[in-house]
Amino acid sequence: MALTRKIAGLSLMAGGIAAGFGTSAHAQGFSFDPNAIVVSESTFVPSTGEANALTVGSPIIVAGTAEPGTTGNATAGAGNLSVFTNSSVDGNFGITAPLTLLQINPATGAQVGLSLTLPTSQIVTSFSSKSEGSIYLSQNGQSLTIAGYDVADGRAAVGALDVSNASTSAANGNPSGSGNSNGIVNRTVAQIASNGTVTTTDFNAYSGNNPRGAILANGTYYTVGNGNAGNTGVEALTPGNSATLATTANNSTQIGQFAISQAGYPQGTDKVTKDNNFRGETIFNNTLYVTKGSGSNGIDTVYQVGATGALANGGKLAANAPITILSGFPTGLAKPGADYTPFGLFFANSTTLYVADEGTGGVADVGPGSHAGLEKWSFINNAWKLDYTLQTGLIGQTQTYTAANGDGLVGTVTEEGLRDISGTVNADGTVTIYGVTSTTDDITHNDNGDDPNQLVAITDVLVDTSATQVSGETFNTLIQATPGTVVRGVSDAPVPEPASIALLAAGLAGLGVVRRRRG
Description:
5-stranded mixed beta sheet; 3% helix; single chain; 519 residues; disordered N terminus; mainly beta; disordered C terminus; 5-stranded antiparallel beta sheet; 1 helix
């Protein structure tokens, strides 16, 4: 697999305010390159914050109290990646880390322009929570959104432990909705404008679990995730309507509620409230789509939220909007063992849909019958049909790390599929898909969510509908795996608002500069 080394670039930290609703200062000199793809990544910060107090053989202390539910004492300190072996005694284990947006040349993987580290006083991610950090382009193409945590309960924002399992303020003291970890941490959505300005809105859904993503459409954030109480899946949140740690009523609205009885299964076959454990999302033709690809409840497949075109002409999704499985997509229960584990989505057109499948981490991810990798679906006779799954150069690729490197990562990491994806329809009739890889490893007691992973790309012929037509298509690596860094999301870059575009164009014309957006 061809490797292109990531070029180091300048990093620009946008300053901000630590509050429920915060807006960073304008990032001096920053703007997104419209020809770049944007990649979100997170880098583990060793020996920082609350995690720095981890001591081998001593209890794991979270928010000043011994963490409940642990089965033993700390197995490693926070000096390197071996700290994530603590997941063997703490099923909630995670360490908060910054989120950084990189601008990448889609052809070479080289970094272009400045990178943007989001202000940690407003948003962080839980390192090793592998379903977090997806980034999405707004419906109008003018901003990006990403979901995370606002650590405002007295702990340092970076290095805080187990936040993805902490309660939100609305569930504080409510046993049915509380988390499995100490501390009170509300979730947040960061919106990033084309000039790098970062605005955040806190919300208190997904208590005891993690937010996975958010898309802005018609003045509303539509988020996906899962709540410990199981009563949240797709949420609608108004930008600026921010929760604080004193907020006890939900400031977001649940949209729809899927139950397996809709697919003909008897009520009570599983936990109905856990059927809405959604991971990825996209908006295409003014319609919201989400995926479910994990957990032992529900159906791992692709869903439509609300009516077709419901988001056209400024429309919004109602709380009672239906959530339905796309016709032709799998309807088998997840509990016997997942055959499909969908995550990211990219519509090349109204009849061609690419689905990223992150795999199960087992031998079933390789060879005939496996769906791990990049699935291509076509809409024929009012139903979706799986054409083929692209895997060459992806599934089974390995990299071995040794103790000599001193980063605490010792063992072999294997690529098993894809998570977040984005794409471009090219003028020559091909489609290029950019994807974030999922991994598994043989590292004893390690949480594979902290495995170094990659950004890859593959080009497919749009009109091909059979595996026999596919010839020589292989995944190429744009960003290599780097220990301590995880790649989480990929998107097109946002463009300025129309008035800003006119001003920018006038300025560029004076300089004799012309830039063309991809697509």
